[in-house]
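Final report, closing paragraph on structural work. Over the funding period we assembled a curated collection of sequence-structure pairs, and we close with a single example.
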Amino acid sequence: MDHTESRDGTAGTDEPTDDTRATPDPTPEPRSAPEPAPEPGRKRRRPWVRRVRRTALVLALLLIVPLVAVETALRVNYMGDPADGTYTRGRDAMWLGHAWVDGRKKDADVTALAGRLKDTGVRDLYVHTGPLEHDGTLPKSVYPRARWFIDAVHRELPGVRVQAFLGDVLANGGPEGLELGDAATRAEVVRSAGQVLDTGYEGVHLDLEPLHSGDEHYLDLLDDLRELTRERDAQLSVAAHQIDPLPHLHSVAGFVADHPKWWSQEFFGQVARRVDQIAVMSYDTARLFESTYGGYVAQQTSLALEVTPPTTHLLMGLPFYYESNPSHWGHAETVAAAVRGARLGLSRTDPDRELFGLAPYIDFAATETNWKEFEEGWAHRP
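Its predicted structure, as stored:
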């Protein structure tokens, strides 16, 4: 093996001679071009920023696309014409405020109410007689003029029933409230129901909120109340939450909020089978447009009709008040839209249902426009 020596006499190096060094390389390796300097005032995007923006875009699409789809479906649901004959069956109801039984109202007020309700189809009045105490009791002092009001209605509006509207906040909606899981509390609610029936009311109308879908204690309470009202030949009616417009929406809402907005359709049916009347609180829907609100009421009417037995009287609530906030936009939630939506739902699902009606909420907040739209759209047949 031929090898050269280094200048210091060590072997094993292949260092070129001076002549070799002087010879230029005919094929030099290409040199990479230097990266361009960033433009003045312009920052380079970091990879994590791009990932965050991409994720935000995906999440926005996941929220917006279903929302647009739902709104479109509701708008379509509001299209078409209600079937002939889908007007009042003479089985409507109305929620009334507490002033009718605490001494603020007089005979002239009852006469005026009778004039307003005459020929409208309203047969049941749910007059606010509570609220219940959190232990289920009801002081008689909160409804001192109940007997007077019942007698006055019977005189001015023969055939119209007066039911005691009893309500309270449930403990599952906050730190204080009525605890349905307590058997003694449920027993007191039943006793309070018997107390108002002794006063002369012809039924008990229960409104407990916020009531979670599937609450077995509530079903137990209804069973006990039904036994009492049947013994007294009285009505048992309830105000009901809306039904899931999308499958299992009540579960999602219950997870993120203490006040559930919806019940499952199955639970709604369980409640409906235990009562004489069930009134859907079909308002405060957060719909932004009159057409989508009307489509929503049409959907709710169909969902309720599907699981309400023909022996139970179904009522759809109407917003007899005007306010604008994120849960209730007054320009959208009109009586006209609710009436037309209820008629559409009735037409598509069970147009011949006799035990069906509408229920305005509430008398003291009603406007002339509310009354006009109710009378022209539902109460007065063309």
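Residues 47-77 form the longest helix (31 residues). The first strand starts at residue 4 and ends at 5. We thank the funder for supporting this effort.
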